[in-house]
Amino acid sequence: MELITAASWLKPAEGIDLMDAIDTTSLDIWNKPAYINSFSHLNNKSVKEKNRTK
Predict the structure, then answer these.
(1) 42 in Cβ contact with 12 (< 8 Å)
(2) pTM across the whole model
(3) Are 4 and 31 contacting, i.e. CB atoms less than 8 angstroms apart?
(4) How far apart are CA 34 and CA 12, in angstroms?
């Protein structure tokens, strides 16, 4: 989680290199959203929350 957070504050080229080194198959319920947000931020994209229906 710390690497994901730190990578999001780096220059995009550096942060993306770090993010690419993460094994995404091992992400859990807590760090998967952080990974998605960080990766989107580094790629200058917005993350929109999906509408949840019950």
Answers:
(1) yes
(2) 0.74
(3) yes
(4) 16
